[in-house]
Amino acid sequence: MRYMLMSNVDTSALAAMSPDAHQATMERFVSFTQALAESGVLCGAERLQPVDTATTVRVRDEQTLLTDGPYADLTESFGGFWIVQAPDLDTVLAYAADCPAAAYGSVEVRPLVELG
User: Fold this and answer.
1) What pTM did the predictor assign?
2) Please, what is the Cα angle at 106 between 100 and 108, to 5 degrees?
3) What is the Cα–Cα distance from 31 to 5, expressed in whole angstroms?
4) I want to staple 49 with a disulfide (CB 3.0 to 4.6 A). Which of 13, 39, 53, 80 is the partner?
5) What's the start-to-end Cα distance of the chain, in Å?
6) CA–CA gap between residue 113 and residue 110 (Å, rounded)
7) pLDDT at 70
8) How far apart, in whole angstroms, are the C-alpha atoms of residue 66 and residue 42?
9) Residue 42: is it exposed, middle or buried by C-beta count within 10 angstroms (0-12/13-18/19+)?
């Protein structure tokens, strides 16, 4: 089964880091992704631009409403994701616990709907 691991990071915690600590954290994300790839479970991964580059789109009463930034003002922002193939949820939860985002926010794990 395929699962998505969604990185939700506390942006204020990252902003408070020294440049060296921030660089080390980013390197941990790269190492995490490489480890998933080397183990053969990685199906895909993407990192998102910072949350201040987002535009939220809503349609109400047939009118399109645009808002700069995310829909809600949250302490954590969705920063990226990994799609992995794993035999069971426990295996994926172990991957999620190894993800650097778990130390600076959270990692949401969700099974994907297998189409066709």
Assistant:
1) 0.85
2) 110
3) 16
4) 53
5) 13
6) 10
7) 65
8) 34
9) middle
Which residue intervals of the chain are DSSP H helices?
Answer: 11-15, 19-39, 89-98, 101-104
Q: What is the CATH number of domain 2-48+74-111?
A: 3.30.70.1060
Q: How far apart are CA 43 and CA 57, in angstroms?
A: 29
28-33: long-range contacts, CB 8 A cutoff, minimum separation 24: 28/100, 29/80, 29/100, 29/101, 32/98, 32/99, 32/100, 33/82
Give the span between the Cα atoms of 86 and 64, in whole angstroms: 40
Q: Which two tokens stand for residue 98?
A: 């190894």
Amino acid present at 10: D
Locate 83 and state its tokens.
């799609």
What tens digit of pLDDT does each residue of 28-76 get? 999 999 999 999 999 999 999 988 888 888 899 999 999 887 666 567 7
